[in-house]
Specification:
Helix 4 runs parallel beside helix 6. The protein has a five-stranded parallel sheet with strand order 4-5-6-7-8. A three-stranded parallel sheet has the order 1-2-3. Helix 2 links the parallel strand 1 and strand 2. The radius of gyration is 23 Å and the shape is globular. Helices cover 37% and strands 8% of the residues. The chain is of the alpha/beta class.
Amino acid sequence: MIKLSVAIALLLGFFGLQAQEMSFEEYNPVSTLVVPENPVSRAKFPFIDVHSHQRDMSASALKGLVSDMDKLNESIMVNLSGGSGSGLNDKIASIQQNYPNRFVVFANVDFDGVGKDGWSDKAAAQLGKDIENGAKGLKIYKSLGLRYKDSDGNRLAIDDARLDPIWAKCGELGVPVLIHAADPKSFWDPMNSDNERWLELKTHSRRKRSATDPAPWEQIIAEQHRMFKKHPNTKFINAHMGWYANNLGKLGELLDEIPNMNVGIAAVIAELGRQPKNAKAFFIKYQDRILFGKDSWKPEEFPTYFRVLETDDEYFPYYKKYHAFWAMYGIDLPDEVLKKVYYKNALNLIPGLDKSLFPTD
């Protein structure tokens, strides 16, 4: 007697069919929906990317970057990986010698040694030198709040009073602080069937956290907001929309409450693209406080940002399946709002940018 499985295989073979095994990670169906499509390969207006990371800023590297930037209509790139001291000075020198109006760098602070005598004053003084030497702002990585520890081995909180001279120095010198705090809240939530970032956590297991690793999400985010409020004369750009792109109502409340806080859209376009009506209303209401950014430098991914911001297209794919298993929709921003997001808001926040690269209206 032939077993059922063998019989099925024989039948499939008879009809010219093949049974194919596939894991859930591989499942990525192509939509059969037929709707109007308006892909955007080049931004409608020149833009400033306020959230990029470039380790190599040699002449040859800059030449390659400019070639790709021109294709995208990117006028200025803000390199957040500037470092400090001689390394920062080398990057600035290369920019000045090659493309002085197309790139700027933000400095970074070395938080090693917080708690030792004189650390705060020394760190603020070094930051002052870095800005005097040409840095246009300060970038804070998520390691602050997650991994950095003070000289006693305790987790270094974002609102630690020993860091106050850093934020105050930026306010004094009129340069912004772009800060990334924590990660999406889903990384702290139970990894079960209710977690919409489950696939990302399954394929990138090191991103999973808990209330004790190193602290609850709510605690880290609250530290950031307290620090913003404590330094009202310093302008902050909250990277990744402060991880509230999935809750724009709450983000709006925070913007109302913290007038010196702005937000960048880097790495959260998938959240905006699944709520086009809500996102459009948010962008219009807070149009003076939202900045364009991408984060990882992959030119082929920028068109998804352009399409979400500029068109009213329906149901088009996002470029990272594990970030978003849903499709994107365009929010069709008015031109004046689009100009503010693409370049006007950055020109107002970051000193010394070449305004001649942009329309005068």
